[in-house]
C-alpha cells in the first residue's frame, strides 16, 4: 500500500482546454433534453469547463482526503477515533469516489471509499468484472490491506450490488449492509408475485424501453463508443451528464444537485485517467454474473427516489434478505443519493450501524 496524490500534468490540462475550445456542437433534434443532452446546456458547460473551472483548486480539495493505491486499487481512507467497525462506501456508474466524499465528512467511524475496478485510478482485474469479483477485491482491501476484522458496507447501483455480494460471501466479516436500491432476489419462485411487485416490474421494463440505449451500446459495443468519448471531452460530458440529470432527483435542473465545479471535477477525472472505456467493462461482463444467494446479515434500505424505484415495494427486498432492520422511502434523493442527500444518508446509516453494533 502506498500513499497516492492526484497530480495532473499541465500539458494534459492544456490539451484538454484546447480540445474543449475546438468543440463542434450539434443542432438540437428536439426541445431541451428530450433527445438526450441539451446542446445549449452542453455548450454552456463546455465553455465553463474550458475557461472558468479551476482544476487545481478541485485537485487540492480532493487531495485533502488521504488516498492510497494497493495492488491497483485506489481508495480514500479516513481514520477516526471510534471503536465501532468501519464502513465501506461504494459508488456506481457514471460516478466516482467523489460521490461519497460529502457523506464521508458526516460519519464518525473509519471510512473507506474505493474507486470501482476500471474507474479512474483503479485497474481492471484479469478475469470478468462481475459483482462477485468486485466484492472479492473490496473484501481483500478491507481485511488483508487495512486489517479490519468486521466492517459495514454501503452502496447503490454497481456498488450496492457488489456490497450485496460482500454480505453473502463474507457474512462473518460484514456486520451489516445498507443500500439505496432495495435488493433483488435471485428469482420470484418462493411465492406468487403480488400486484405491487408486478406494477414495479412493469414500470422497470417500461423504463428500460426509454432509457436503456446507453446500456445496450456499452454492453455490446463498448469499444466503439469509448473511442469517441476518449477523444472528445465534450462527447464525454454529454454522455455522463445525460445520466446524472436523468437519474438524480433534480426535477430536470441538473445543477440543483450537481454544481458546475462538481460536474467539471468528475469529468476531468474521467478524462485525465482515460478510464471512461474501462468503466464500461462491468456492462460487457454482466452476463458472467450468477444469481446471488439470499442475504442473511442485517440490512438497511433507504430507497432512492428515481423512476421506477419510487414504486419499489419492500416485499421484493424481503424476498432477497432475511434480516431487514430498517426500511424507508424518503421520497427525495435519486440515483446518487449519498451525494444528493448526504445528511439523510449519514443519519440513517449511522443509526443503523449503532443499532447493529
UniProtKB/TrEMBL annotation:
Domain of life of the native organism: Bacteria
Question: What molecular functions are annotated in GO for this chain?
Answer: hydrolase activity
Q: What residue stretches are annotated with the Epoxide hydrolase N-terminal domain?
A: 2-100
- SUPFAM superfamilies in UniProt: alpha/beta-Hydrolases
Alphabetically sorted, this entry's keywords are: Aromatic hydrocarbons catabolism, Hydrolase
| A UniProt-annotated Pfam family | EHN
Task: Give the signal peptide, or none.
Answer: none
Spell out the InterPro entries in the cross-references. Answer: AB_hydrolase_fold, Epox_hydrolase-like, Epoxide_hydro_N, Epoxide_hydrolase
Protein family (similarity comment): Belongs to the peptidase S33 family.
According to UniProt, the name of this protein is Epoxide hydrolase
Taxonomic lineage from the root: Bacteria, Bacillati, Actinomycetota, Actinomycetes, Micrococcales
